[in-house]
Design a protein that fits this description.
This protein has 20 helices and no strands. The chain is mainly alpha-helical. The protein is globular, with a radius of gyration of 20 Å.
Length: 413
C-alpha cells in the first residue's frame, strides 16, 4: 500500500510541477508577461486546489478514502491530458482548473490511510518514504517533460504525463484496501465524525500543530516557490534550452532528492526519532542551513557554481516533507487527520502556487520595467524570496516546545 500511494504522490507532483519546466515556451507562444504566465501556471491550479481540498478531506474523514483517491487520480490525469490538447490561453486555463480540482483529492486521503497502517512512532518514517514520490514526480516533471517538449512541443509533455494516470487510478481501485479508521490509536473506540470548525478549534489549542503548519507552509513557499521558477531562470540567465534545463534539474530531483529523503527516512527510523522534539529541531537546523545555498545559487553568475549550489539546495527541499506530514498526523486525533492534512495543503499551496509564483512574476516584471534589469529581472526577484527559509526554520524549532504534550493530548479519548 505504501508503494502504490507513493507512486500516486509521484504522479500528483509530476502533473503539477511539469508546467514549471514549460513556463518559458508557453509564455513565448501565448505572448504573456511573467505575471501573466504565473497566474496561468500557478494561481489557476491553486484557486480550485486549495478551495476544494478541505471539503474533499472532510469527506475523506467520513467516507471511503480509497474511492475518493481513485476518482481524484482519474480527474487530474484526464485534465492534464486535456492541457496537452489546448489551443489557446482559455482552454489551457480551464485545463489547469480541472487539474487543481482533481489534485485536491490526492494527498489528504493518502496520508490518512497510511496513518491507519503505521503506529504513531513509525509514521514520520512511513510518511518520509511516501515523500519519495515528490522526488520521482519532480524528475518526471523536469527531465521527462523537458525532453518531450524539446522534441515534440510543450503540449506533448502534458499528454505523456496525463494518460498513464488513468491506469494508476485503476491500480488504486483494485489494490488499495480501506483500513479501519483509527485502528492503531487507543482512542479509536471514541471516534466520531467531526466538523471543520471542530478540527480548527482543536488545532488552535495545539501550539505545536500551529507551528508545524506554519513551518511546513513557509518551507513550501521558500523551497518550491524558488524551484517553480528555476527552470525559467536557467533558460534566461544561463541561456539553456527547455530540454537542457530539464536535463540538469531532473537528476537533482531524482538522485539528490531521493538521497535527501532516504537520509531523512533513516534518521526517522532511529530510536532518537521517537522523540518528536528531536525531529523538529533536526528539521529546523537542516532548513536553516539549506537556506544559505538557496540564496547563493541565484546570486552567482557562473553556471558551474550555480550547478554545485543546486545540488546542495534541491536535496534539502525534500528533507522536511515526510517528517512534517508524519508529525502533523501525531498531534491531531485520527478522525481529524485528513482534514488537518488538507489545511496544511491549503496554506502551503496558497504560499507555493499563489503567492510565490505571482509575487516573483510581478517582481520580475517590475524589475525589468522600472530598473531595466532585462533578462536578469527574474534573478533579483528570486534572491528576495530565498531568505524566507530562515522563517520556516524558526516555526519548526518553536513547535518543539510543546510537541510531546500535544501528541499525548491528541491520543486521549
Amino acid at each position: 500500500m505504501l508503494g502504490v500511494l507513493t507512486v500516486v504522490y509521484a504522479l500528483n507532483i509530476a502533473d503539477r510541477y511539469s508546467i514549471s519546466t514549460l513556463i518559458e515556451p508557453i509564455r513565448q507562444e501565448l505572448r504573456l508577461s511573467d505575471g501573466g504566465v504565473a497566474f496561468l501556471t500557478g494561481v489557476a491550479l491553486a484557486l480550485f486546489y486549495v478551495t476544494v481540498g478541505i471539503p474533499i478531506a472532510a469527506l475523506a474523514d467520513r467516507g471511503n478514502r480509497r474511492n475518493i483517491l481513485a476518482m481524484a487520480i482519474a480527474m487530474w490525469s484526464g485534465m492534464t491530458a486535456a492541457c496537452g490538447l489546448a489551443q489557446n490561453y482559455w482552454q489551457l486555463l480551464l485545463g489547469r482548473f480541472g487539474v487543481g480540482i482533481g489534485e485536491a483529492g490526492g494527498t489528504a486521503p493518502s496520508t490518512s490511510i497510511l496513518a491507519d497502517k503505521f503506529p504513531a512512532g513509525r509514521r514520520p518514517m512511513a510518511l518520509t518514504i511516501f515523500a519519495l514520490g515528490a522526488c520521482l514526480g519532480a524528475w518526471l516533471g523536469s527531465s521527462v517533460a523537458g525532453e518531450v517538449a524539446e522534441h515534440s512541443g510543450w503540449r506533448a509533455a502534458f499528454l505523456a504525463l496525463g494518460v498513464p494516470g488513468l491506469l494508476i487510478a485503476s491500480l488504486v481501485w483494485l489494490t488499495v484496501l480501506e483500513p479501519r479508521r483509527g485502528q492503531l490509536d487507543s482512542s479509536s473506540a471514541h471516534l466520531r465524525p467531526t466538523t471543520l470548525r471542530e478540527t480548527l478549534r482543536f488545532i488552535v489549542t495545539q501550539r505545536s500543530a500551529v507551528h508545524i503548519l506554519g513551518g511546513g507552509s513557509v518551507a513550501t513557499l521558500w523551497s518550491w516557490g524558488l524551484m517553480w521558477w528555476t527552470p525559467t531562470f536557467l533558460q534566461r540567465s544561463h541561456h539553456m534550452t527547455v530540454g537542457e534545463a530539464g536535463e540538469l534539474l531532473g537528476p537533482m530531483h531524482l538522485v539528490g532528492g531521493t538521497a535527501g529523503t532516504l537520509f531523512a527516512a533513516w534518521l526517522m527510523g532511529r530510536r532518537a526519532a521517537t522523540n518528536p522534539r528531536y525531529v523538529v529541531r533536526l528539521l529546523a537546523g537542516v532548513t536553516a542551513l539549506t537556506t544559505i545555498p538557496s540564496l547563493a545559487v541565484y546570486w552567482v553568475s557562473s553556471e558551474q557554481a550555480a550547478t554545485v549550489l543546486l545540488w546542495i539546495f534541491v536535496p534539502g527541499v525534500y528533507f522536511f516533507i515526510g517528517p512534517v506530514l508524519g508529525l502533523l498526523q501525531n498531534v491531531v486525533p485520527a478522525n481529524m487527520r485528513a482534514t488537518c492534512c488538507a489545511i496544511l495543503l491549503f496554506i502551503a499551496n496558497v504560499a507555493n502556487l499563489v503567492i510565490a509564483p505571482q509575487f516573483i512574476g510581478w517582481l520580475s516584471d517590475w524589475f525589468a520595467g522600472s530598473f531595466g534589469a532585462g533578462q536578469e529581472s527574474l534573478r533579483w526577484a528570486l534572491i528576495l524570496l530565498a531568505p524566507t527559509g530562515f522563517w520556516a526554520a524558526w516555526h519548526l524549532w518553536t513547535s518543539g516546545v510543546t510537541i510531546r504534550e500535544d501528541g499525548t493530548r491528541a491520543r486521549l479519548p
